[in-house]
Design brief:
- The chain is α/β, with parallel strands linked by helices.
- It has a single domain, classed as 3-Layer(aba) Sandwich (Rossmann fold).
- The chain has twelve helices and 14 strands.
- The strands form three sheets. The protein has a ten-stranded mixed sheet, with helices on both faces.
- Helix 5 crosses helix 11.
- The radius of gyration is 21 Å and the shape is globular.
């Protein structure tokens, strides 16, 4: 835990940890600017970031903080929660609906303010210390004091950090177009094995197996477990026969992005639950493979048949976020799209991690050379996007992608190909594509 706690704090103070740990070389096709991709501005299909035609309902479920026990080869057995936020079309009649699983990345797990304040105070003293031995002592003290914010389950009376709720804006949009969106919690993985892609994949597959059982039989552990997110009262909703688990999409943010690539890889398809077929994958501001020059490592993240949409930001202070389209180019028959959004950072994709939410330890992690400006690793300065603007762009691109590949809608092909550009007035967006 010591290394992680030091790293977590440093990531939001100076980004030195993320730069050292996560930076990898970007390779791939030449980029074109979406802003310049079509003359005359936007005049195409309806903006997919706007709500669709279906009224949306929301629910949650939890089977407990230790409902999933993962045997990690390095850390042993770790308890993981089976908890999720669900958005779905209120009217589930008609053709069975596809399902999208959303997975957050690495963040603190327990909202223990006393522990956070103690950790920060010790690290501040360590920063000011000049004696090497005293600096080390204070850093170790800070790590020890901060352990409760990276524990799982949380101590009695300490609420968990609901990172999985940070994509409700996206889930609601998808549901408004007829897609059931399930955002799953992975605090147990963050506290237990930290960066294990296998463990995060186990969480995704556990939820998919439960949904497949519920959709096919109406029974299983999820039956009768849905509650209202606000009142926590039971919600009666019938999903039997209403879902098509052969049309599944996945989105992972940060380390969750690397995990959805692991799950979608050809090597790991055999681990999908029976009856499940993943048809579309979005790594969002994703962490890349630790050794992108090693073909054996990269093979754990390559799919040869599943369409891929990658979204990165030029002001991301935690990851490069544009790893997988370059690595997959030439190795797949499926469509590849990578959008690099100028002025987008890492945390704003998740509302819980963003300052405006008032969430626990929420922060804007990017460098600000001047008010309203942000700087990426390449040293280029861009106008920084606001939280709502960044999420609107993210929502529109993902919604267009999932509608195409899960609903068979060709409505947004021109957006995905860069011909139409509904967000050109909001940000410069570079597009790389293949197939």
């Amino acid at each position: 835990m010591t290394i992680l706690l030091v790293a977590t704090r440093r990531a939001r103070r100076s980004r030195r940890f993320w730069v050292a740990l996560l930076a990898t070389a970007l390779v791939g096709a030449a980029a074109v600017s979406v802003r310049d991709a079509a003359a005359g501005g936007y005049g195409g299909a309806p903006d997919p970031s706007r709500p669709g035609p279906f009224a949306v309902a929301a629910a949650e479920y939890t089977l407990g903080d230790s409902a999933l026990q993962i045997q990690d080869p390095e850390t042993g057995r770790i308890p993981v929660e089976v908890t999720a936020s669900v958005h779905y079309p209120r009217d589930l009649s008609g053709r069975p609906h596809p399902l999208v699983v959303l997975l957050h990345g690495m963040w603190v797990t327990c909202a223990d303010k006393v522990a956070l304040d103690g950790m920060n105070a010790a690290f501040d003293q360590a920063d000011a210390a000049t004696d090497p031995a005293e600096k080390t002592r204070l850093q170790e003290l800070g790590s020890k004091l901060g352990e409760p914010i990276m524990a799982w389950p949380c101590r009695t009376g300490t609420p968990p950090v609901p990172s999985y709720r940070g994509y409700d804006y996206l889930a609601a949009n998808l549901a408004s177009y007829g897609i059931v969106a399930v955002s799953v919690s992975a605090n147990g993985v963050n506290a237990g094995s930290m960066s294990s892609d296998e463990d995060r994949t186990a969480v995704i597959n556990k939820h998919l197996a439960l949904w497949q059982q519920l959709a096919s039989t109406g029974g299983g552990p999820l039956a009768g477990k849905f509650t209202d997110p606000a009142s926590h009262r039971p919600v009666a909703v019938q999903f039997r026969g209403k879902l098509d688990l052969t049309r599944v999409g996945t989105m992972g943010h940060s380390r969750g992005g690397r995990a959805v690539m692991w799950e979608a890889a050809d090597r790991h398809k055999a681990e999908w639950p029976a009856g499940v077929q993943v048809k579309a994958v979005v790594p969002l501001a994703a962490v890349g493979p630790f050794d992108p020059e090693n073909p054996e490592v990269v093979a754990d993240y390559i799919t040869s048949t599943i369409p891929l949409l990658e979204i990165a930001g030029t002001c991301d202070g935690a990851t490069l976020g544009d790893e997988y389209v370059p690595l997959t180019t030439g190795k797949t028959t499926a469509a590849l799209r990578q959008f690099v959004v100028h002025g987008a950072n890492h945390n704003f994709h998740n509302t819980v991690w963003s300052p405006a939410s008032g969430g626990f330890d929420a922060a804007d992690e990017t460098i600000h050379p001047a008010p309203g400006q942000c700087k990426g690793r390449d040293g280029v300065t861009d106008p920084q996007l606001t939280e709502p603007t960044q999420r609107r762009i993210n929502t529109g691109l993902e919604s267009a992608f999932f509608q195409k590949h899960l609903l068979g809608a060709a409505t947004y092909d021109r957006i995905l190909d860069g011909t139409d550009q509904p967000y050109a007035s909001l940000a410069k967006i570079d597009l790389k594509k293949a197939n």
